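hiii, so i know i said id send this last week but things got crazy w the move. better late than never?? heres the sequnce for the chain we talked about at the cafe, plus the structure i predicted for it. fair warning i was half asleep when i ran it
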Amino acid sequence: MPPSDRIRDHAGQSATTVAAHRARRRLRADQARQLADLLRHQLLAGGFPDGTLPHETTLATDYRATRNTVRQALDLLRAEGLVDRLPGVGTVVVGQKYPHGLDRLMGLAETLREHGRVTNEVRAMGPASAPAPVAERLQVHPGTDVLYIERLRRLNGLPLSLDLTYIPLDIGTALLGADLENTDVFRLLETITGRRLGHAEITLEAVSADAHSAAVLEAPHGAAVLMLERLTHLADGRPVDLEFIRFRGDRITMSGLLHRSL
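okay and structure toks below
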């Protein structure tokens, strides 16, 4: 074989070896992500009541994975702040997420009452001219004054969400002297109007925390937060509460019960 052919043959074999190695790495990364998803569900559902995950060898056997795949999966959970490695102990659960249901219309304190005490730090409150998108959603004229409220909401003292709320002023004026630090706006709206809340339209998406939100929520700048936009109506259909809520993604999970209909 001429030298040039031997060089090309060697180069071809090397390229094949590199491609195969990269394919194996991608496969292991895929498997690690799949395993991390399964373990995340278990630990958030209380599947490890003593707070300690099984040994890596046990996990590898249970999930028919390699030790390297298990280590990569645990590294992913460690990066999320859910587990940590303690010398002489093993992998332990260090993070907790709180369940927020999407199939019932409830305030945050009502939703999380089994998990601790929700308190509110009112950062801003007062009349503000309604921007066009807000006016349209609340069915008031653009530029009409509405009540604007900005609250930092904590669960057991830990920052959980930053809520920006807009309420028609004919209803919102009565909130100015209310106990917003310890009471959900939903309860206050029903008390003020003498009517029940009816339904809400929601949109949920992941956004990056801007500098202000990150500072208030004590989260890294640019961290992923869950943005819940919710327009709540009274039982008669009138829109009364437009909210933009930024949840710390590492402290909350969203869940609901869906029924299929065609």
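btw The longest strand covers residues 118-129. thought thatd interest u
miss u guys!!
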